[in-house]
Amino acid sequence: MRTDTTAARGTTGTAVRIMLASLVGLLAAVLMPMAVPALLPAASAHDTLISSSPAAGESFEQAPQMLELTYSDEVLNLSPVVRLTTSAGEEIFTETPTVSGSTATIDLPPLPADDYQVLWRVVSSDGHPIEGTVDFTVTVGAEPTAAADSGAVEPTESEEPTAGTDEPSTEATAVEQAEAPQSEGGLPLGMIVGGLALLLLLAVIGAIIVRLRRSPGHGTD
Questions:
Q1: How far, CA to CA in Å, does 63 sit from each of 139, 147, 155, 164, 170?
Q2: pTM score, two decimals?
């Protein structure tokens, strides 16, 4: 009888060890994908505007014919936007620049003497929208007639991009929402899920051990 009891205990102990090893492996498989992101280096900073032509604060007798924005890395061609306003806040245009690598360019119309502000927005190479401003001054500028002629077509040019300006905002929001769980909300959520998984597995282990201890053959001498 003692031999049978000892054999039963040995069999029970072996079964418990196998079950525990299996559950530990399962726990590692569940928690490892959540732990790896926390061990990785922090994501690199967003791209930045490193230069522009015209440069910030630059002054011209006649307005430049083109605006060029150069960034620290290649930006995504995802509905970039450039908006040009006067010193009074009047919008000259809102249009989509041409993006090539780390550079965004757009043609400028003839402009009268005034202080101007360029408001730009692009999507960084890491998927986050970035924006900023560039101010420049035109001291002489185009003749009033030239300005009036360019203004005659402004409503047509501005209406289409104005409708399009909602796109970057919508897509930028979608990008932020898509990445928010990774950069900000991802780790806490992973910890919560991992904690719940750990508690569940511990409860299962406890239940198995209790049941094995109560099984026939696991008795006292």
A1: 9, 11, 21, 26, 32
A2: 0.49
Separation CA 190–CA 178 (nearest Å)? 16
User: What's the pLDDT tens digit per position in 83-111?
Assistant: 999 999 999 999 999 999 999 999 999 99
Does pLDDT of 117 surpass 90? yes
Backbone angles phi, psi at 217, to 5 degrees: 95, -15
Which residue is associated with the tokens 């501005």?
158
